[in-house]
Write a structure and sequence with these properties.
This protein is an alpha+beta fold. The protein has five helices and 24 strands. About 15% of the residues lie in helices and about 40% in strands.
Length: about 325
């Protein structure tokens, strides 16, 4: 279940979840306002037990893969797996939404700033509704529950939340201080011979994390060889091929401190430009048109979780000759 679909279709999406018996999972948890412990009172206020439930949820999801927690859906076990079985909207959901929003910032240490709380009404009763907590995976792990009488670290395993073992917590702290890298493409013209213009795409990696990055490696799973040429000479990096993949390895002097950026790779393509109108006529003979296909990549560095991303090139107009303006193309998304 995706947050975008849920916020657009609202209760209809939840009815479909019940009809299809959607299972709880590592990244999806269905909850009731009163389930074992009373989380929300009839007037929508969050109880002391409810604060413990929410804190445990936030800690577990933040320390794992993130995900969605939806209040207002009852589950029943089907072959040992809990599945959505019935909608039970939360009473005074707007008050409950306010109570939950106020508590989220106090129940986790360190804070997971990406957490968002959404709410929408039931189609049958505007006073009742559903609460959705969208918890992103955090790179600041581990996160501790700060609820009274529940100072602890939790994680998800399957569709349940458990208190973390001592070795889990130690490992999470070791992973906490790590670089965080982003990739961008800078365009410029490097040669011109008559109507033939050679354009270079320089790949720059930036460290947006808190510690230095070394042993950086960039991998392009599909270099689209009929579109781009990948020169082997790249200064501080070494190009290797593995099947259709290409990999750029940095040397021992290639260290990216927080806030720094450096060129890690380059690719080239040729366009034919009319000398009078200065319009792009075509690409080089036998070549495919640049920017028409997404370009995926993977970034690796010592002590950092591997980062996969893609350039989808939306808004990059070859006819407009973006290299003349020094266009910088940001990675479209990462996953």
């Amino acid at each position: 279940m995706e947050i975008q679909e849920l916020l657009v279709r609202k209760e209809a999406a939840l009815r479909d979840a019940v009809a299809n018996g959607v299972q709880e999972s590592l990244t999806l948890d269905f909850k009731l306002a009163s389930e074992g412990e009373v989380v929300f009172k009839e007037d929508g206020t969050l109880t002391a037990d409810g604060r413990k439930v929410i804190a445990k949820i936030l800690s577990a999801f933040s320390n794992s893969a993130g995900g969605l927690v939806i209040f207002g859906v009852e589950c029943k076990p089907v072959e040992t797996v809990d599945c959505a079985s019935r909608l039970v909207p939360v009473n005074n959901y707007q008050r409950a939404h306010s109570s939950l929003n106020s508590a989220v910032g106090d129940l986790l240490q360190p804070k997971n700033s990406g957490i968002a709380v959404h709410a929408f009404a039931s189609d049958d009763d505007p006073l009742k509704g559903y609460l959705v907590i969208d918890v992103p995976r955090s790179d600041r792990r581990p996160h501790r529950s700060e609820a009274a009488k529940q100072k602890g670290y939790f994680k998800r395993s399957g569709s349940n939340s458990y208190e973390m073992e001592h070795y889990d917590i130690e490992d999470a702290f070791r992973r906490q201080a790590s670089p965080d890298l982003e990739l961008e493409i800078r365009l410029h013209r490097v040669a011109m011979s008559g109507v033939q213009h050679t354009i270079e795409m320089s790949f720059w990696v930036r460290n947006v994390g808190d510690v230095a990055a070394d042993q950086t490696m960039l991998e392009i799973p599909d270099p689209q060889g009929r579109t781009y040429e990948w020169p082997r000479e790249n200064g501080e990096t070494r190009l290797e091929t593995s099947g259709s993949r290409i990999k750029y390895y940095t040397d021992v002097n290639f260290v990216l401190h927080p806030g720094d950026d450096r060129k890690v790779a380059r690719a080239r393509f040729i366009v034919l430009v009319d000398g009078q109108s200065e319009r792009v006529l075509s690409v080089g003979p036998g070549r495919e048109v640049p920017f028409e296909k997404p370009l995926e990549f993977e970034l690796k560095a010592k002590g950092m979780r591997n980062i996969r991303g893609v350039f989808d090139f939306k808004g990059v107009d070859l006819i407009g000759r973006p290299w003349l303006t020094g266009m910088i193309i940001k990675q479209s998304r990462r996953f």
